[in-house]
Amino acid sequence: MPPISDSSGGYFDELKKRSTESKVYSQHQLLGLEIAVILRDWKHKALYIKLAKEYNPVQLLSIAKGIAEKRNVQNAGAYFMKVLKESGLKKIPK
Questions:
Q1: Burial of 84 from C-beta contacts in 10 A (0-12 / 13-18 / 19+)
Q2: For helices 76-87 and 57-69, what crossing angle results, to 10°?
Q3: Cα 81 to Cα 25: distance, rounded to the nearest angstrom
Q4: Fewer CB within a 10 Å sphere, N or C end of the chain?
């Protein structure tokens, strides 16, 4: 790897190239990122990825879309967690 002070820009070109490549390797990662986008809560994307791995993905997506349709929800991420807890969804057995 060239040094950071590389005047030809090789190092920074490599970083730009890597940043455009997808880092999603499994279905639960994709679903977690999709939930983060739906809820407009990109800050907690790792949490949604974890939840997508542990719970039924169809039900999680359904809850997220239902919350996104409500106009009066100020903090969609917090409301999603509340609804998830109250729904009584069971974790997927490993």
A1: middle
A2: 130
A3: 25
A4: C
Q: For 45-55, what is each residue's pLDDT tens digit? A: 999 999 999 99
Rounded Cα distance, 10 and 57, in Å: 41
Does the predicted model carry a pTM greater than 0.90? Answer: no
For residue 18, pLDDT over 80 is answered with no
pLDDT for the residue numbered 11: 83
pLDDT exceeds 60 at position 5: no
Phi and psi, residue 7, nearest 5°: -75, -20
State the SS3 of 3-54.
CCCCCCCHHHHHHHHHHHCCCCCCHHHHHHHHHHHHHCCHHHHHHHHHHHHH
